[in-house]
Every structure is written in structure tokens, then in C-alpha cells.
Fold these 4 entries.
Entry 1:
Amino acid sequence: MKRLLSIAASGALALTASTTVHAEDKLGAGITMYFQMGGNPGDGATLPRTNGARAAAAAFGLSLKEQYSGWQPETMLSQFREALAASPGCIEIMGHPGSDAFASLVADAEKRNIIITSGNSPLTKLKDQYSASGFGYAGVDLYEGGKLTAQKMIEYGGLKKGDQALEYGLRAQAERGKSDQGLYDTLVAAGLKVDYIEISPEVDHDSSLAVPIITAYLLKHPNLKAIGTQHGNVTAFIGKALKDAGRKPGEVTVGGIDLSPSTIDGLKKGYISVSLDQQLYLQGFLPVVQCVLSKKYGLTGLTINTGAGVVTPKSIGALVPLIDKGIR
Amino acid sequence: MATPESLRARLLRIEGLPINAVLLILVAVFMLVAPEVFLSYRIYMSFLANVPPLLVLAAGLTLLIAAGEIDLSFPSIVALSGWVLGYCIHDLHAPWLGLVLALAAGALVGFLNGVLVARVGIPSIIATLATQFLWGGLTTVLSQGLSYSLSDVDELFVWTLFVGRIGPLPVQCLWALGVAICLWFVLNRRRFGEHLLFIGDNVKVAEIVGVNPKREKTRAFVLMGVLAAFASVLLTLENQNFFNTQGGGYLLEVMAAVFIGGTSVFGGKASVVGTVAGSFIIVMVEAGIVATGLQGFWVRAVVGVVFLAAVVGHLFIQGPQKATTRRRLLHGKLGLNKGGEP
């Protein structure tokens, strides 16, 4: 906690200083950082991270190079190789390909004194190995995030043993799938009967294609009590599928993730019951702080859980102005 | 009196009959295995609400492929025109202006594609791949990466006109049907369609007989751009949302709908009726398999099997000529024994 406070204080100092000093005097001046943003430029699960990273880069005077992978693990690896070839000061990587896939590349970077840190999906093995040289993690513990979503669904919807539920997720993806696994395991542990459907790559890219699939499932299972997903854009379309299937708001407890405009509408109208808030802005801002402080002062890597709460129809109202700006 | 053979031949002259038969068989199978879903009107209303953008895109692409060209940039037109419409509704409160500008943006992108392909001479697969990145990237720049919620758009007449409901029936299915009928007439009854098929079959011969390939290809790209923009209008209004990445999942699905429908990948032969059936099959298959109760990682694999079965079924229904080819393939004589049938 002390470390977190000291980092926050450093960040605040840097921000304050940024208003009075020239760019070349800022703490991060001269540092170049490659940053894997995750999805596609501007998608709901990526934009706040981009904005957070840009804000921190501007505050510290750091040169930020953004990389977008469309959440494809193989693209993340090739982008890491490209970043290494440019010999920057720091690289932030997404954990989706897993520790083993990144191991040799990170070892090479460490030899060359490039600070590596991670976000959104943890690389526990590598973090343990290289935390002394600044390898940190800013993101949700994915399994715990899924678990929390399920717990809040159970609490919000009064779900009980024997109730029927659907999990629509991406468990086939090694790291990203952990949040879906957490959600699934928690619902099963609570005694619910849970069906699982894997999200197709087409739905992953354009989630409006999920509507007839979820609608068909809802019609097949008239007694369905809950739907869970940890896919931000799919969360946004569950309300429409419920409507198409003739279900009223609140009839089915829906647990999702992130806060895209459609998800906000779904929360306001009561179609979506809970949505995990990862506070993506922090996942952009904090790795830049990590990079600058590790590069300048040799501070070690920090593990920061950026999201420990859910948004509900009751709490959404206050967040809307910030969501509209791409901050929440 | 007609013999059974001549009756079959006459039936097979009906455009798109094999693929429509496959579609009906699929619906019948799903009705048998998941009656609670496929005997309910709601699933069909969901299809009729969600198929139209894909159908409009696929119908437009059918004409381009008939001319031996391809357009890979339409997902970005869906995003760009969606942004134009979304911006005009969200920020300017001018939905009709948005509609006109969205269609104009599609036409402009289509025209530029046409110029690059027909006038500059860049192969369409390369030119439109490049413009896909260009217009997709530009959309992100223009929208600043933001999505727009258009939750109040259902109070506007433009929403009622394009995606409203007549009882439970989504209006967009009538628009999509209208587009398909118009394109069928263009392809089969108008000189423009005839020229496209001619160009797709043999561009040199087409030129000799007086067809202007540059002009006709440019027109086809413009038409594709306008239709992609119209698909975007339907998608954006139906979703009551502009998503910065919208359209991205349609590329393979639209192409699959066109090719399943019987349009030749080499050009010169195309079927709008087949494309309509192909579009419904594409959207229906995964929903149908989920409705059968299949779960987990198997769904995707079974979707592939059903697609394959649809294509094979299509070939078997199609007739003696294809059957001969199949027999030759089975006997390993294709290309080896020029003597023909044993």
C-alpha cells in the first residue's frame, strides 16, 4: 500500500510539475515506451487504456508508441519483437500469450536493460522472475474478476441452487479465458446448472452477430435465470437479445464486463444487472508510471489490482459523463 | 408429358433452387431437433432483424464478384458511414442529413476504389485491402475512438422508416428484400448486369463487343460503396449505437454467403437468389446449433460441418453435370483420362 501511495504521490508530483516545467525537464523525457493497448483503436475495452497511457505520457514527457493487436496473442508476440527491435526504454505487454510464449523474448529484453511491464492479463511466472528490474502488473486478477462478477450476479439476482445459467465466453484463450473460468466456476460452486458456449472469432470482432445466437439459446431455455460473459462488446448486446426473445428487464440476471455505451443503456434499462469495472484508464496510466520510475530510479515492479468492483443499475448514473469521455 | 429427367432439368433452371432447398432442409432439421426455438416466431424475427445488413452487403458483393472483382473495404465503409450517421444524430441532431452524408460517403469510397482498380489498374484485392485500412483508420481518427449511444433514436421517423416494426416484423427485412430484388433485375434484366457478367467471364471479349470495363467496374464499386453504407445505416439504427469497430466481423461471413449461394469465385456467373439464401444460412447455422443444445467448444466445429454439408448438398442437388464431375473425381480420372466417362 505504501508503495502504491508513493507511486501515486510521484505521479501527482509529476503531473503538477508538468504544468510548470519544459518538456525536456519532465521525469520521462528521453524515454520511449512501446505499449500494447490490447484490442482495436477505439473499442470500448481499449479506449480508456489508450487515454490513460496518453495522459501519463503527456504528464511525464515520455514518447509513447501504441500497438494494437485486436486481442490476438500471436500479434502481441510479433509486436513485442518489433518493439524489441526498436530498443526502447520500456515495453508494456499484454499477458494473453502466456509466460512461456514470452519467456525468451523477455529474457532478451532484460539483458538489454529494457524495462518490461505487463497489463490486463497477468504473467505471474515472468513477474516473479523479473520484478526486481521493474516487471509489474496493472490489471484485474482475471480469475478473481470473473469470480467477483458471478458473486455479484448471485447477490443481485437472488440466484440459488438448481437455477439454470449460461456462460458465453472465451475460455479457449489461455489467459483471457481465466475470467470466464472464474465466473463459470463460481456459478457452478453455488449450485447453478451452467451451460457454456464459446464466442466465435466473428462475434469477437463484431458482437452484434451474437444477438441471434443468444436469442436462440433464450428461446430454447425458457427457465434460464442468468447469463454471464466477460467479453465487453458481447455484454453490450445481451440486452438486445433479451428483448428479441421477449424477456423483460430483470427477468434474467446478466453479469458482464466493461462500460460501453450500449452496456450503459442496458444497465439503465435494467437488462444488465452487474458489469465488472476494470478501470481501464488505470491500466494505461500506471504502466507508464512504472516505466518512468523503474527506468529513472530503479524501482521494482508493482502488482496493482485495477478493478475490484462492479457497476449496477443503481450506480451507473454518476459514471456516465466520464464514460462519454473515454475515461471510465 | 414431361419425363422425370426433363422435370428435374426444368426445376434446376429455377435460380438458386439447390441452395434454397438446402436452406429449407436446415430449417426443417432445426425444427425437428429444437422445436421450442424454430417453431417460435421470435427466432425468425430475430433473423429478419439481424440478417439484412449482411444480406445487403452480400448482394452488392455478388455483382462485383460477377465482374471478377472483390471489395475487402466494405467493413470499413460500414464503420465510416456508421460514424457519419452517428455523428449527425448524436452531435448535430440531423438524422436525414446523416443518412444522405452516410450514403454519399459510401459512394465516394466506392468511387475511389473503382478508380484505383479500373483506371489505375491495381488488382482489387490489393487496392481494397489498402482502403480497408485507410477508411477504418480514418473512422477511428474522426470518432476519436469513441462509440456513440443513440438510445433515443427510436423516437425518430428515420428509425421507424428503416428499422421500425410492423407488428413483430422488422422493417429492415423489407428494405433488404427490396435491395435484393432490384439487384436481381440489374444483374439479370439490365445491360449493366449483363456487362458485369460478360467482363467477369472474359474481359477481352467483352471489350471487343463494345463493353467499357473501366466504366462498368467503377459503377459496380460505387454501387457496392452505397450498399455498404446502406447496410451500415440499418446496422447502426438497429443497434441504436455506433461502434467504432462495427462491420469488422462481416468480412468472412459476407463472402461465405456469396460463395455458398453459388456465385463463381472466378466471375462470370452469379446468383442474387443464392446469395439471399446463403445469407440466411450463415446467420442461422450457429444459432440453430446452439438451439439444439450443443455446448462448449464443439459449436464452431459443427458449424463447419454444417457449412460443408450445405455446399456438398448443393452440389448433389444441382444436377447431372456436377454429378459427372464428382464421379470423375471419385475415379481419379479428372485431368488424367481425357477420354471422359468410363
Note: The first strand of chain B starts at residue 148 and ends at 149.
Entry 2:
Amino acid sequence: MAESPRPYTLVAELTYRCPLRCVYCSNPVDFARHGDGLDTEAWLRIFREAEELGVVQLNLTGGEPLLRRDLERLVEAARGLDLYTNLITSGIPLTRERLAGLKARGLDNVQVSIQDVTAAASDRIAGLTSFDRKLEVARWVKELGLPLTLNTVLHRENLDRLGEVVALAESLAADRLELANTQYLGWALVNRAALLPTREQLDRAREVARAARARLRGQMEVLFVTPDYYAEFPKSCMDGWGRRFIVVAPDGLVLPCHAAHTLPGLSFDNANDRSLAEIWESSAAFGAFRGEAWMPEPCRSCDRREIDYGGCRCQAFQLTGNAAATDPVCPLSPDHGLVTDARRAALAPASGPLQYRVADPTRR
Amino acid sequence: MTTISLDTRPRLAAKARLRWDRKDERFMLLYPERGLVLNPTAADVVKLCTGELTVGAIVDQLASRYASQPREAVEREVLDFLTRMAERGLVTGADA
């Protein structure tokens, strides 16, 4: 058997709890079934084991990682392991003092999410009055001398204001602006009819982002992530299954991506039971979609199979019911009509009320 | 964007951190969600990007350390590397 690839990034989902209720939350729709199953000591062991495996990047995320009272200890230990430690947060709830304490313990970067450029629009998507507090947090980040990533998730309600998003990021002196189009999985799939943009809208926004990237080169990194639904080919999801990323979910499940535990037929190991190395190197679930052996046609004989690794397994499952199918985003997929139908539907006015993230969704 | 000349005093950006990668025995420059693998010369340059030395002074130090290479070659390599780093926002600096 070939040697295992080296993981570079650990995504530590410290909790699925969150004060926000964003309509495109990337946590699984059944997030409430997964409680916080890892104590401080368990997380510290996971960080050590990850670093041993080769991980150099640590994303502390959730849910809202600030809800963990042991966040300070986790940051301190991560930095002690020389991991590049990135806090991915809504900024709620946070005080300036706590942020200063996190910086003192070695936090490397803070990523704050802003849902839109006005309080009304941003709070509507977040399902919580939070916009003004978020801006305040973003200002504290810079005042304390921490690097700031501003993250805005894009969809049909805010794509036309991308220029204003860029201006807001500039006014906050963000070091990095992550313009991440919604990917239509989980909660976002529930809300797809309300969120999926048209191609025209997306193309205009991409042009705004391209111009901003050129103008701000060297000052602010501007990242624009295309929604899979309008991509020419599937993305190499997570850089390939079990290739570069380890995700640990709040209950301790060790996953190749943050939604993998929604796939049926795979049994994921818990970090409370086995070492990260064992799970990474020899668990059946991490092996399931590694490499090419699992691939169906048209992937198996495709020139791009080592570029996109067959695309996103969760998208394949959520759209076709088969996790081992070619990602329907691919024009070569026999299920590609599912994506083109959704694009066509987006030409009509947005439909359907927004379904906020709730513990017990009434999805119909 | 910082334009890199011999008089610039380059400083590593706040978001970037140099790390020795013991797994593959090399230096990596880490920044949000990314990492660059550095060759030994590039790592030496980054270590000198403290905001105190000019690019000229950095070239002097490296030229004496790598005595087998002509100074012009070292200078060209350092300027090229720092320009690429500045384009990525990983190095900033003021002119002397």
C-alpha cells in the first residue's frame, strides 16, 4: 500500500453551538445531534498528534469557537507546538480584553465574518442582531496588531454589493478578504432557491473581485471562491479526500471534510478512541475515496482525475444519493442536469422563505 | 504595494511566520490558510527581513556568506524574491 499523504491543516471544530443562525451554515443540518464530546485534554492531544503527522496550520472554528471557555488554553498549546493558529469566528461574543488575551497567548490570525455591508442585510442572513458588534471586533483585531481576514459568504442577495464589501474591508484595513460564494450543501441546499445567484450576477461580481485583487495587490489578498454550481469543472474538494486536511468535529469524529459524517455507509472513528495517526493512515473511512480506485466513469479515465479527484463527495451524495458518483457539477456527469436545472431556476425571482439554522428543522 | 529596491528596509508582514518544518527538514513561511516552502537562501533572506536592514545590507550579508556566487547574482536573486513576496503581501517595507 502506498505511503499515506501528509496532512498540512487541522480544522478543529470546537463546538457546533453558535449564537448566529446563518441560512448557509456549513455545519450539518443535524448539528444538534453532535454535542461537545472533547474536553480540553483531548483537544490538546489531538493538536500534538496532528503536529506529529505534519500539520502546520490550525483552524479553530465551529460553530462559534469563542463559546469554548478553554479557548485560551487551546491557543497557547497550539502556539507552543508552532502551529499557525487561525481563529475563525463570528466575533460574538467577545470583549477586547479577551481578544488581547488570545493574542498574548500567540494567536496568529483572526478571521471575522460579515454577512453583508449593512446591519439590516447582514443581520437578516445571520438571524441575529450582530453587524455593528462584528465591525467593532474587526477594529479591535487591527488595533491589537493582529492580522485580520474578513470573510463574506456570497449569494444572490449580496453579490451585487461586492464593491461595497471590498470598500468595507479596505476601511477596516483587512489583510485578507475571503469572498466565498455559498456552496450548496447542508443548510445552503435547504435554502438554495433563495440563495443561488444567476450566472450574470456572478460574472459581474467576479469582475469586481478581479479588479480589486489587481488594485490591492500586496496590500490585501482578495480571494474569490466560485460556487461549484457555476464552475466549469468540479473543484478539488479539500484538495482531495484524506490528502491534506483533517477535520475533527465537536463530538470527536475525525473527518476528511466538515460534512463527511453526513455520508451514509461510512463509519468514522472518534478521536477519543484511536490516535489521529491510526485514523489518518489506516481507517476505512479515510481510505474510502482516497486515490482513484473508487472512481466511477467518467472520472476513472478522465484527464482531470488527478486535478479534481472527482470533486465533492458530499455534493455527489446530497444531489444524487450516491456518495461515489461523479460530482454532478461536472459537465461529464450523467447527473449534470440537476445542476443546470438549478441554474435555470435561478433565473426566476428568488423563491421560498429563508430557513434559519435551527436545532430541529422543519424543512418542508 | 511596496516596491523593492536596494534601499528598502523589508519587514516580514504581521500575518506571516517562518517555521522550521522538522517533518521534511526545510523552512516554511506560514500565513492564513497557506504555506510556502522556502529554499535555504530564501529562508536566510526572510530571517533578515526585520525592518532594520536595507535590501543592500541583506545582499552584502548573503554575498559574504555564499562567497562562491557573484554579488550581482545574489543581488538579482534577493530582489526577485522580495518583489514576489511583496506582491503576495508577505513583505512590506519603507525606503531608507
Note: Chain B has a mean pLDDT of 94.
Entry 3:
Amino acid sequence: MKEEAGDFIVLEGEVLENLPNTLFRVKVNSSEKIILCYLSGKMRKNYIKILPGDKVRFELSRYDMERGRIIYRV
Amino acid sequence: MIIYKTDAEIEIMRIGGEKLKTVMKKLVPQIHVGMTTNDINTLAEKYLSEQGAEISFNKVEGYKWAVCVPINEQVVHTPPSKRILKEGDILTIDIGAYYQGFHTDHAITLVVGGKPTPKIDKFLLVGREALNLAIEQAQVGNRVGHISEAIEKKITEAGYHIMKQLTGHGVGRDLHEDPFIPGHVTKNIEKTMKLKAGMVLALEVIYSMGSNEIAYEKGQEWSIITANKSLSACFEHTVAITDKNTLVLT
């Protein structure tokens, strides 16, 4: 199923925890919601390290609102 | 949230696991010095198709291949490439199969050229044995922590290191489901999740000779290496826990 630009929402939040298998628990800004996120390929490639306390921008697909993709460290 | 599989779903996964086992059995004898890891991927795709199964790993967003093929200090998630296999390379083949809506996951590590030194032979034997011990613990009445403890004890007693950030996982309609199954004890075992009938787990022993820390391979999108570039290996089976027994699906 090909996703188009309109299928994503972009949010910002704070990394709460680094989890096993290189996942991150992120708290969404202005909300109590916690999203499980992974790093986008670009961020892995460019060796961007993400730590608890970091502010990040991430995409959520409307087909999977439980799993986010971190695209930028703010 | 744990997704428990019905008997009918476990039966589908059993058939899928059987197909994956066959794919791996056909693939391993084809591994030889001089082939590329792209060649491994092509063969895996061919054998999966012959078995009537689909590729599993390309259902992970952004991952376009059928296999992960880490070599030496590469630990997991290394995509196939033009890299040529050399004599003595420690190659992990990690493949998934997708059959009638369910994933199964399996990995082995071998020495290219088939002539390991005694040191490497022992390194790989310990990993295989650790996986067998993990499977023995994967039964109703035990907890995730019992599996972690079994893996950690076997690996560390032999002088090797568990890659602490990488874990086994539930498997089913998604390739990666709850629960995480660490290869080491992270908290009081009695506080870890109870194993129940209907759980299908990808048990993974992921370890190295010299470090328990990982790093992203520089310039690579997916590949993960040991932080100090020491050799690593991975053995994995998908198992289904039932009331009567534990089935090794792969």
C-alpha cells in the first residue's frame, strides 16, 4: 500500500527512553500520549545519536498511529 | 500488548515455519567463497517463491530485501550488497517468511568456506547451544526472564557478550510484536511476563566475542555493528507455546 504525503502527520515530542531493538519511547508535546518510534534511515546513516531528553520531530502514518518515525532532532 | 494465536493460526505459522526451514536448508549449501550477498538475497527470494511463501522483511518500512546478511563485526540488519564473501567470513543469514498473513523468522551463523578455526567453532557452538537452552525454557509456567537467564548464562560463562540492546520478540501478523525477549536478565525474573499458550516468539541469541555495545555502521542506513568491531553471531528460531508443548516452527 503506497503512502502519500497526506497520509502522514508530523509531530514533535521528547524522548523519554531508549528501548531494546533501537526503538524510542517519545512523549508527544502538549499531550500525555506516548508513541513508540524508530529512527529514519537518514538519521541512522548520518549517525545522529538520540538520547532521553532530546526533542525530536517524527512522522505518524494514519495507517499506524502507534508507531512513529523520527526524522529530525530539534 | 500480547497477541495470542489460536490453534488454527499456530497451524498456519507451523506450515510457514516449515517452508522457511526448507528455504534455509536449501540456501546454506549454496553459500561459497566468491559469491556476493546480493546473490544470497536472490537465492532466498527464489526459494521462498518456490515454497509458496512471500518475503517477510520487505514488509518492514524502508527495508527492500528478503534477508539480512551481517558479516564478522556486523551484528544485525545488514542488507545484501555487492560485498563478496571471503574464506573465513562469519556470515549470519537471517530470513523471514510471510505465509497466509503470518511471519516466521529464523537465523543462523556459519563460516564461509566451512573450515572454522577451533576458536570460531566453539564461538558458534555456544550460540547454538544457548538457543536450545532458551527453547527449553520457553514453556507455559515459565517467564520471559527464564529465557533471558538461560541465554545470558550460557553466553557469558563461555566468555562472550550478549548484545544488550537487541532482543527476541513476539511474531505473528507483524514481524515484531510484544513481548521483547532480552538475551540477558534486566529485572527480577518473577516480575517478567508469564509465558502462556498462544504466544509465538522469535527467540534470538545475539552475541559477540568482545563487546555488549552496538553502533550504527557509518554511512549505512540499516547495518548495526559491535561498538569495538569484534566478531558477532546470531541464532534464531520461531517457537509456538501451546498447552501441551513448545513447537519449534523453524
Note: The radius of gyration of chain A is 12 Å.
Entry 4:
Amino acid sequence: MKPRKLIVTAVAAGILVVWSFPVLWALLTSFKTERDVLAYPPKLIFTPTLASYADVLFGSASVLPNLGSSLVVASLATALAMLIAIPAAYALARLEFPAKRGTGFYVLATQMLPPVGLIIPYYLVMQKLAVLDTYAGLIVIYLTFSLPFAIWLLVSYFEDIPREMEEAALLDRASRLRALWHVILPQVRGGIAVTAIFVFLNAWNEFLFAVVLGGNRVRTVTVAMFNFISVEQTLWAKLAAGAVLAMAPVILLGLLAQRHIVKGLTVGAVKGGGRR
Amino acid sequence: MSAAGTVRLEGIVKRHGAVTVLHGIDLAIAAGEFFALLGPSGSGKTTTLRILAGLEPHDAGRVIQDGVDVTYREPGDRDVAMVFQSYALYPHMSVYENIAFPLRMVGTPTPELDLAVREAAMKVHIDHLLARKPGQLSGGQQQRCALARAIVRKPKLFLLDEPLSNLDAKLRLETRVELRKLQRALGVTTVYVTHDQEEAMTIADRIAVFIEGRIVQIGTPNDVFEKPASIVVAAFIGSPPMNLLPGMIVRGRLTIGELDCVLDRDGLGDGAVTVGLRPGALSFASDGIPGRVELVEDLGDSSIVNVEVGDQRVKVRTQHRPGVREGEAVHLHFDATALHLFDRDSGARL
């Protein structure tokens, strides 16, 4: 191996170890008893138990309903976001309309606000509308940050499709909507998949809004895990088991779509410049 | 051949912000005509084609098809088919689906559609490739696929935007001939954009020469070649283009450098002119314009001899080996009928 390659490999391995440490720690801890977790010095060799998983799945503090809530919130938020973002991104990429630049910037600007600053206004508005702690309320709030993200990611995919493609379709007597459906969308399938995955991950992993604006009737898995931490004690093994259960679907999703995601993140990096 | 298919452009003006791209284009194309828009890049020929297709909005003027004003019609409502320079094939569809697309969009019944697709594919010799995706085709095959997609619905007007520019030289020559044959067979009015004057000369019934957003001449290839309307056209048409030398007319006599000859044309006033001479109209003789051979370019069946005349370079095309050597002093002879005279100031043909 050349020295350069050796260094790159070593650095990559280092990053991998640091990055995967919390995940491995959670995985190990989830198989320990609460007593083993607190043992000092930490036990690397212990008798693994599924007790925490049994508890977390079927016990009194089961996170199964919460996984269900997360699934509902994340899936619906993703579906709605894509439904709105696809036509919006297409319009921004292709159509000429008044205040197009302004609209584009406005969409992006909403991404620049720190989410924590919005919590109180959101809370008050949702309270007035009586949608606090409802699926509808939480999903709409998730749209506020996933939509701009989805729109801007999709715009770059749409811009990568040559304009002549849909001009040809228009001349072939397709309406704009049919040109979009038959000619453009099939070509941005990959981009749509990547965007949907990102939106889903963001919603699935979200904690701040979920804990403040939901929490009782609608309790997502991230919020539920937080319940294992209380003033008197922290149930580390259960927390870890819950975390592993919460991480599993997204890690699986990430691995399945890895190739697309990497391509999605580098879109426009090589030719044409992508996003405007 | 259908009588339908006439096209007229009236005073088309197109601006991009402060820049005027087209300064009032007037054009009338007859039914079934093969009409070329010829000009250097940036001269507005492609923009004109796109305005014809309805793909580009313009600032003033009208587009008239078969006597009907279609200026504000959507591209799909104009019965126009176009082959793009990039072909714009739909990469996710098979060749069959690409060709079928225009028919699917108007709900053609399947048996009829199938027949039309196969017929169109046959005409351009790609009927054995129908199952492939465009990415699996060679450049020439892609171009044929784009052609098939355009002819399958028998449009009134056929627009071609530099369709041969992405092909290699040999294929370009072959496709040129086939394109012409296809157009004759279909009898569809065709507007063809190219920057290649040789292509335009060989393929078109008539040519409109575009220079800087204006049409400077419309005519048959012969007209444009034999009687260029101005210095710009003269300098653009022909390969190599026309030699342009400064001259002076005084009392019916023309002086070019050291050469002085009688003009056999009446009605020319005294003054400075530009003399145009096609490289093929010049030959070596014992008298004529004196010069020195600078370089001989051997093209195999012909030669281009570069001759230094004063501080100018004149190109001479000879059919055989020229019989002159580099550095040799020569005289350039020409027939008086081969002379083109242009006004030195306005550039207009005299």
C-alpha cells in the first residue's frame, strides 16, 4: 500500500471508530442488566440478556406504540412533503413567474431560523387551533422544515434534466403536467427517493418539537426513550434497547439507499453547478 | 404532397433584456420546401426556429401557418415536429416508446400506433432497434430515433436544429443525403438550422442567411453563392470563402493593386469598391494580379494555393496539382464575369 493510501485508510478507520462508538455502546449496553451497566470498571465480558428488550417491547414501558407513532408521523410528513415539494421544485426549476427569485429565497430563508426560536410561537398557535399533541399538528410542524429542504434538494435534480427534454414532450402534444409525469419524473426517480429518505430520517429523529408540541397522546419513540431518564435514576439498559430499536429502521434504510444518498449529496457538484 | 404547410414570419423581434437578438425577421416558406436557416453561431437562427415552434416567446411580430396566425398558440397546438441538436430522446423509454410517445399523447389506438411506429422506424432503418434504450444506441442511431419520433405523426412542419452536428464527418455526409430523400418522400415543409454553409447549399431548396439577428439574403443555394447580396454573405459562403480585395473604379476602369482593367459593366460610378473573387474563379497565367505563392495546401483531388498579394492573402483553388512552387512569383488571372463588386462603405452588392 502506498503511504498516502495508508494515511487515508488510517484516518478513515479513526473516524469510523469515533463515529460508531456511541452506536456500539448502545448495542452492548442494551444486552446488559442494569447492574452490569453500572459496574466499575465497565464490563466488556458479561452474560448477555434480552431482558431489556423484553421490557422495552412488551413491558409496562413498551415503546412499540411509540414506534408506531413515529412511523405515522414520519411517513405522513414524508408523503405530504413530497406531494407538495415535487410540483414546487419543478416550478422553481422551470417556470417563469413573478417574484420567482424572491420565492426561492424565502423558501430557503425559513431554513436559516433556529428551530428552538420557533417553539413558543408554534406552541401558542397550535394551542389556539387546538392541534397541540395531535398527529395533524405535529405533521404540519414537521412540514415547515422538511418542505424547504425537500424543495431545494429537488430543484437541483430538476435542473439537471435538459430543458429540451420537456420541450420535445410539449411539441409532441403533451400537456405540461403530462410532460412532468411521463418524461421528467421518471428521470428524477433517484432524486425523489433520496429526498424522501432524508425527509423521513429528519422526521423520525426529531425530538425537540415532538417533546414540546406532542408528548402525551402523540408520543414518538424519541420522546418515549427520554422517559427512561428520570430524576431518581436512569435506566441505561432500557434506554439503550429503546435506542437500538429506534435506530434499526433508519440504519437499515440508510444502508439500503447508501449508493443513492451519496449520489444525492454530490448532485450538481460536478457538472453544471446544480442549485442556483 | 400536401398543399398545407406554408409558413410566414412577419417582423419577428426578440430581445433578451437590453440586447436585441432578432431585428424584425420576415420570411415566407412555401409548402413542401426544404428551407435552411444558415448563419454563424449567435446569429439568431436557432432562436427563429424556436419561435416557429412556439418554444420561445418573442417581443413583436407574427407567426403564420397556412394563413392562420399561430403566434399565441402553444407548441403542441401547432402541428410541428422538431429534432433537437441533442436529440432530446427520453432516456427511460425504449426506442419504440420514444417513437410512440407523440401518438400516445393524442390517444392513438394501439393497433394503429404500432403500425405507425414500425413504419416510421423502417423509414429511418432502425426497426431492428426498437427494444433498446437510447443509451444503448450509437450517435447516428439516436439521431434516426429522433427523426422517427418526429415523422411518426406526420406533422405539417418539420423543424431540424443542427441535426447532423453531433455526427462524425462520414456519417454526416451520408445522413445529409438520406435526410433530403426522406423529406422529398414525405413532402413535409422543413426548416433546417445549420452553421455549415456546405450543408445548407447541398440540402436546401432555399437558404436564409442570418448575420447578427438579421436576414441578409434569401435565395436558392445558387443565388446565394453566385450573387451574394453583400460582403458579409460573400465572406460567409463558400469554402474557402470569397477573396475580398480593395479596388477603385475610375471612369469605367477598375484598378486592383497594380492591375488595371476595363469594366464591361455600365452604370457604375467612380469610387472605392471591394472586389470579390471566388478561389475557384482564379487561375495562374502570364498576366493578371501579381503576387507570390506563400503556401500550397494539397487536398488530394484539388489544391488551395495561398498567394500573397500586397499585404493580403488570396486563396486560389485549382483542380489539379497547381504547377507553382512556394515562393514563386505568379499572376492571378480571372474572367471578368466572375467579378463581384461591393460598395466599400455599405458592403452592398453593386
Note: The domain at 7-233 of chain B is CATH 3.40.50.300 (Rossmann fold).
